[in-house]
Amino acid sequence: MRVYLFIAAVAGGATWLITPLIRHVAIHIGAVGRVRARDVHTIPTPRMGGLGMLIGFVVAMLFASRIPFISGLFTANHQAWVVMIGAIMICLLGMADDLWDLDWMLKLAGQLLISVFVAWGGLQIISLPLGSLVTASPTLSMAITAFLIVASINAVNFVDGLDGLAAGIVAIGGIAFGLYSYILARSSPSYASMATLIDVALVGVCIGFLLHNWHPAKLFMGDSGSMLLGYLITCASIVMTGHLDPASLHTSVYVPVFMPILLPILVLFLPVLDMCLAIVRRLSKGQSPMHPDRMHLHHRMLRIGHSVQGAVLILWGWAALIAFGSVTILFFDLKYVVVGFLIAAAVLTVLTMLPYLRRRIPEILEEDAAYSKHHAAQHVCPPPMGDADASKKQPDGHAAQRDADDADLPTPEESDRATTTGMTKN
User: Where does Mg(2+) bind (predicted)?
Assistant: First the structure.
């Protein structure tokens, strides 16, 4: 464990030291993100922080290759070098997008090509839990591997919308998965595990970058960083699954190891959920799946009333709950895990809705008070009117009839004229 902690410290230290230099380089070459309608920040901020994260990861892996306890992982096969080459390629693709804003189809094509290259280099899922343990064909293995890598890359890219959000979620997932892979590795003749090595280096990179990326961020990771994080955390799970041989172990012992196939989705549950919701939302409107909007989970948190730091911390809490809950279920009694999960979920739900409740409860009480006052005013009886006023405002039926009869009688002048006329005719 001390060796892995040392590797994490090397990755974090190298990332922390190199990131300020990367910031100056990004400003010099023009990799500064303009403020867009969907952005939360209001000041143009340099991006391309993924380059510093890549350097930190590569430095940690090179250190690890010289440590006797882990060096055998680099000589047994080429997986470690394939992972590093793929990391460099995916980071370069992200840097190109940070500089020139590539079309989403071109970027997706590049992700697919890099994923296929990594799968072709030996980083593959060789078995599938389809009722029983089934060895996948090479073509199917490459397809599943490429799909998982591309999905994770874009999931992290979608959730990268607030300072520190993506790096924190990936770090939490990396810790959960690193503990899981380390526990599994302890049952093997050698404690050395490539999956654990990638995870601890990834966690160190995220922590080192977070020191510069906490709100207000001095530098954004950009697509070069978000795609790199999604790529690395998926590679760690695939490396673990790729080391397993379905024919060598009994099914009852082997089944828990298939958790790495699902664990990237669970440790990245929030990014994956956000990505799926965004795709469905945009397709339902007839838009491209990559069409930007302000309806992501972090945008909704801000709309509820959270500050940037508050929204990030609560989303970290949800990510930790799902990630560690999915891991602990393999090592603890299910009922205790479920009880703890429900209690934590209830607390997080209250914290998530607290700003909304603080604003809405006084409004609801005020609306209820106004309604009650209006309702009471409608039921108050009007004061009785006097007889004179009543006769003026609403004459009774006899008075109205007398007025009508008087209107039919001739006036005295009309009577005199009628009498004179009659005498003249006679």
Answer: 157, 223
As a whole number of angstroms, the distance between CA 224 and CA 235 comes to 16
Give the pair of three-digit tokens for residue 160: 């990268």
Helical segments of 186-221, H only: 194-213
pLDDT of residue 131: 45
Is 77 annotated as a binding-site member? no
DSSP conformation letters of 100-137: H---HHHHHHHHHHHHHHHHHTT----EEEESEEEEPP
Torsion of CA 243, 244, 247, 253, to 10 degrees: 150
Residue 115 counted as domain residue = yes
Instruction: Tell me how far apart the alpha carbons of residues 246 and 115 are, in angstroms, rounded to a whole number.
Output: 24
Please indicate, yes or no, if residue 279 is contained in any of the structural domains.
yes
Q: In the predicted model, is pLDDT for residue 7 greater than 80?
A: yes
166, 209, 281, 196: which is closest to 14 by C-alpha? 209
Residue 15 lies in domain: 2-288
| Domain annotation covers residue 345 | no
Number of domains the chain is built from: 1
- Half-sphere exposure (CA, 13 Å, Cβ side) for 267? 32
Q: Which residue has the higher pLDDT, 73 or 257?
A: 73
Q: Which residue is associated with the tokens 């590049």? A: 110
**287 — phi, psi (to 5°)?**
-105, 170
Any domain includes 233: yes
The answer to which of 93-102, 353-362, 396-405 has the lowest mean pLDDT is 396-405
3-state SS class at 57: helix
User: What is the residue whose two structure tokens read 């209001």?
Assistant: 42
